[in-house]
Amino acid sequence: MEYRDYMVRAMGARNAAGEPQVRAFAATTRNLVEEARRIHDQSATATAALGRLLTVGVMMGDMMEEDSDRLTLQIRGSGPVRGLTVTADNQGNVKGYCVNPAADLPPKSPGHLNVGGLVGPGTLTVIRDMGLKEPYAGTVDLRSGEIAEDLAWYFASSEQVPSAVDLGVLVDTDLSVASAGGILLQMMPFAEDGIITRLEQNLSHLPHITTLLGEGDTPEQLLQQAMEGLDVEITGSKPVQYHCNCSRERVEKVLLSLGRRELEGLIAEGKDIELCCEFCGKKYSFTPEEARALLQ
Ligand SMILES: [Zn+2]
User: Fold this and answer.
1) How far is CA 93 from its chain centroid?
2) How remote is the CA of residue 215 from the centroid of ligand 1, in Å?
3) What spacing in Å lies between the alpha carbon of 253 and ligand 1's midpoint?
4) Which 8-state DSSP code applies to residue 109?
5) What gap in Å lies between CA 147 and CA 59, rounded to an integer?
6) Region for residue 184 given its phi and psi (left: phi exceeds 0; alpha: psi -120 to 50; beta: otherwise)
7) Ordered strands of the 93-98 beta sheet
8) Sign of dihedral through CA atoms 95, 99, 103, 104?
9) Measured in angstroms, how far is the CA atom of residue 250 from the centroid of ligand 1?
């Protein structure tokens, strides 16, 4: 059977009144994490770092209501990778890049890539652009740079939503992605104390997520195991993919955002101006005449 990336959403842990106290997401993302690696030529540890952020990004994107809403996750760190950016919509499209994709560190132990070391101390910013004048943005300090822990901390401290997050990317010896996926569990405001602890315990007792996916477990099965002992109802699923929606019009805006002085300087050099999309690597070229026309 051909492998495909997809995610599921679910509700569960109903209380005595029958209200679900937890909303849950799970995803299998090997193809899209591999696509990012192929585009950016990343080191093993950078593939794991960006893959984890892409995976949680695609699940968080699903929470947004409008098709035009955009989620951006931005990590700035003092580690060798310097930073990571991921953007997602609510239709399963996600894209991202590392500032320094070639950066790498030795593993912490065999099979344990040092993602926290590669990211280093820094901040995580979550931006939700819902077409309003000011996008919603929240920033927290990184907890460990291991991504899952940082997102759980962001949800608890910045959005007051206790959450359990598990993310995994297994990189093969040839640097290709063997498996990738994630689980995101969020408490409803009225959830009873103790549910989050129970879910965290469940996650801590689970084998590593890439082991489960490698054994053929589906996102549905990941959620069943994560919510062991609690009821869980799958409410939807959809394919997820690496997709860049860049266009010449968007790149023109980037060019103009350099400012008149800077752009005039480039035009004066008399050569074609080349811009490369950070997300997909596509090149856009402007002749000095085209650039001058943009300024008018
Ligand atoms: Zn692009």
Assistant:
1) 11
2) 34
3) 14
4) B
5) 14
6) beta
7) 136-141, 122-129, 70-77, 83-88, 93-98, 241-242
8) negative
9) 10
Question: In angstroms, what is the span from residue 69 Cα to ligand 1's centroid?
Answer: 18
Phi, psi of 154 (to 5 degrees): -60, -50
> In whole angstroms, what is the distance from residue 36 CA to residue 98 CA?
10
Residue with tokens 């104390």: 193
Residue with tokens 């560190």: 105
Domain residue ranges of the chain, discontinuous segments joined by +: 6-242, 248-295
Residue 167 makes CB contacts below 8 A (sequence gap 6+) with: 52, 55, 56, 147, 148, 151, 181, 182, 183, 209
Tokens 């106290």 sit at which residue?
21
CA of 147 to the centre of ligand 1 (A): 24
CA of 223 to the centre of ligand 1 (A): 33
Which CATH class, in words, describes the domain spanning 6-242?
Answer: alpha beta
Three-point CA angle 53, 102, 124, nearest 5°:
30
pLDDT in tens, the chain (296 residues): 578 999 999 999 999 999 999 999 999 999 999 999 999 999 999 999 999 999 999 999 999 999 999 999 999 999 999 999 999 999 999 999 999 999 999 999 888 999 999 999 999 999 999 888 888 999 999 999 999 999 999 999 999 999 999 999 999 999 999 999 999 999 999 999 889 899 999 999 999 999 999 999 999 999 999 999 999 999 999 999 999 999 999 899 988 998 899 999 999 999 999 999 999 999 999 999 999 998 88
CATH of the structural domain 248-295, one choice from 3.90.850.10, 3.90.1280.10, 3.20.20.140, 3.20.20.80 = 3.90.1280.10
